[in-house]
Design brief:
Length: 641
């Protein structure tokens, strides 16, 4: 037996197989062919010169889903019904019958389920024992999985090429045995070399910018070769045209049978990305510089009201050295519970409604008790879906402005009060001076017409009395003017008990004469901030009134007490005298020349002057009274200013 060109016995010892075949062939051709078919590793069939199937292996029957009774004696062209391919195949078989074996070729075959199968086909002349060609030996190997893999590889290569062209990511590979370095077209384009350029390891490394970049890539290549370490490095190259570029080069060792055979990797030009990153960094630095130097508190919170950004002003207000001490914390960490709850309520409202809060005036009280008035604005931060993922907060400290506003309001009130007093004073002056003038004019007219000396003397006495009254009125008016024009006299602390004792000493004879009792309940060390000259006048006036307007049925008792209330020192002076009908006279109580009792010494000027003195020290006075039971004056001395 001879085997031409295609080794039928590639998986067996050919000497042994051929020997057994020849021995069987001498006895029985069919037996010999059956033996041969069983020994062959591939699906095999024997056809005669009429192209009829004489013998076939079980593998051949199985691969093509035939049955034995439907195969033997049948033409192979009736088994594989494809006119165009059968014609081509017939030519190949004719050549085989003439002693010319065919090269391997692939055919497609549809299985009963309609799935395509691929086979690698070979045709070899079949000789008898006299070396006559009696037919053709057909071998078929199912290569469907291999073809599918090759198709997948082709698709992956096409996809890789497409992605490589889109992303501008090149590839390279290095073969250790041949010492050859290959660049794809994109890698060559990035280096700006011709497409027929043949690189090597040295030229590739020399493209990297001298210094850190070249040293980094050299070490990466060395570690991959010696220590089998992959790399991914961002560095700079200088292209063949002298242009500096930023690239990311990656490398990966390749092994075969645990032996390093080469390296593969990618090469990407990221110059635009680096330039964009640098622009972003510049803009971020510019924005941060701007935000940090704004005279505003600026911060950003996430959906849970935790700070994720804070500028310099916000850090200074919070009393921290830098943003790291604020990030991740909420308002409960710094403010009172009430303030924190209100702030977070506003945050949640902005995030849910997507409506900003603008210029809301709030008072923020920190845990140390420090209060600051802010104008706050809170603006929602939204993503591309229109959902809020946080807020931007901007706060303006208006504490100083509020103080100025309060001072201005106070100044306006004082000015308004002064204007009212001035108008009132002008009316009083006009009225009083007109009365005195009319009185003088009338008395002088009487004097000029009077003949009797005795009557003239009476008129002259009346003129002297009128003059004294005029002088007294002028003194009162001067005192009021002095109080109104000296509102900026500096206040000083005085011991209240000392002042009361001085007044009691000065009024001692008056107190004894009226059988009065002064009850002093002032603490021994009590101090008040006052204008010293005014406090003497105030105490003198109220104590004198308490005795002067006594109830005729009982001895006068004047009680003086003291307490602190907010920013005031409150001195209360009460008596058990006649009392005042406040419903009737309350609005006129502190008016000039207003009297409410038929007392011979009542002039209606004392309470007016006293009230002016108290208000000149930024204080106030209130009164409670009941007719027949007495009166209580509460004098509020301002401790602050």
């Amino acid at each position: 037996m001879r085997v031409h060109n295609k080794p039928l016995f590639i998986w067996h010892d050919p000497t042994t197989l051929v020997g057994k075949y020849d021995n069987m062939l001498k006895k029985d051709l069919k037996l010999a062919n059956n033996y041969l078919i069983k020994q062959l590793p591939k699906a095999t069939a024997f056809i005669n010169s009429k192209f009829e199937v004489i013998h076939a292996s079980n593998q051949w029957i199985k691969e093509f889903n035939f049955e034995t009774r439907n195969v033997f004696g049948k033409s192979v062209f009736s088994l594989f019904k494809d006119g165009e391919k059968n014609e081509e195949w017939k030519l190949i078989l004719d050549k085989c019958l003439k002693g010319q074996p065919s090269d391997l070729f692939n055919i497609e075959f549809k299985d009963p389920n309609g799935n395509t199968q691929w086979f690698e086909w070979s045709n070899i002349p079949w000789y008898d024992s006299e070396e006559n060609i009696v037919g053709v030996i057909i071998q078929a190997e199912n290569i469907t999985s291999r073809v599918i893999n090759e198709i997948q590889i082709e698709k992956l290569e096409a996809l890789l090429l497409e992605k490589s062209e889109i992303t501008k990511i090149g590839t390279w590979d290095y073969n250790i045995k041949t010492n050859k370095l290959n660049w794809c077209d994109i890698t060559k384009t990035i280096h700006e070399v011709p497409l027929d350029f043949i690189p090597n390891v040295d030229t590739a490394i020399n493209f990297y910018k001298d210094g850190i970049s070249r040293n980094t890539i050299s070490m990466a290549f060395h570690n991959a070769m010696i220590n089998n370490k992959p790399w991914s490095e961002k560095s700079q190259i200088i292209s063949a045209n002298g242009i500096e570029k930023w690239v990311i080069a990656t490398g990966q060792p390749v092994f075969k049978n645990n032996e390093l055979i080469g390296l593969i990797g990618t090469f990407q030009d990221i110059s635009d990305q680096v330039e964009g990153d640098n622009k972003i960094k510049e803009n971020e630095h510019l924005l941060k510089t701007l935000i940090d130097n704004l005279p505003l508190n600026v911060y950003i919170k996430d959906r849970e009201s935790r700070k994720i950004l804070a500028n310099k002003s916000e850090c200074e207000y919070m009393g921290v050295s830098g943003p790291s001490e604020l990030l991740g914390k909420n308002d409960y960490d710094f403010f009172t519970k009430e303030v924190a709850a209100e702030n977070i309520k506003d945050d949640v409202s902005v995030i849910k409604s997507l409506r900003p809060i603008l210029n809301k005036e709030t008072v923020s009280i920190k845990k140390d008790g420090n209060a600051t008035t802010f104008l706050i604005s809170k603006i929602p931060l939204t993503n591309d879906k229109g959902e809020a993922y946080g807020i931007v907060g901007i706060s303006t400290d208006i504490t100083h402005l509020k103080q100025k506003e309060e001072e201005l309001r106070h100044l306006i009130n004082v000015t308004s009060l002064q204007n009212k007093k001035l108008i009132n004073f002008a009316h009083i002056v006009s009225h009083n001076l007109r009365s005195h003038t009319a009185n003088f004019s009338m008395l002088l007219d009487f004097l000029s017409h009077e003949k009797e000396e005795t009557e003239k003397e009476n008129i002259l006495q009346m003129l002297r009395n009128a003059s004294d009254n005029l002088l007294e009125t002028l003194d009162n008016l001067n005192e009021v003017v002095a109080i109104s024009t000296n509102i900026n006299i500096e206040k000083t602390p005085v011991k209240l008990n000392n002042k009361i004792e001085d007044v009691k000493q000065n009024l001692s004879s008056y107190i004894v004469q009226n059988k009065a009792t002064i009850v002093n309940e002032i603490p021994i060390n009590a101090e008040i901030k006052v204008i010293p000259a005014y406090i003497d006048s105030i105490l003198m006036n109220f104590i004198t009134n308490g005795v002067k307007y006594k109830n005729p049925d009982k001895d006068p008792i004047v009680k003086i007490s003291y307490k602190k209330e907010n920013n005031y020192s409150v001195v209360s002076i009460s008596d058990n005298g006649l009392g005042i009908d406040l419903k009737k006279y309350g609005s006129k109580l502190f008016g000039m020349y207003k009297t409410f009792h038929n007392h011979k010494d009542s002039r209606g000027i004392g309470l007016y002057i006293t009230k002016n003195q108290i208000e000149a020290m930024n204080g106030k006075v209130t009164v409670t009274s009941k007719v027949g039971e007495g009166t209580k004056f509460n004098i509020f001395f301002n401790d602050k200013d």
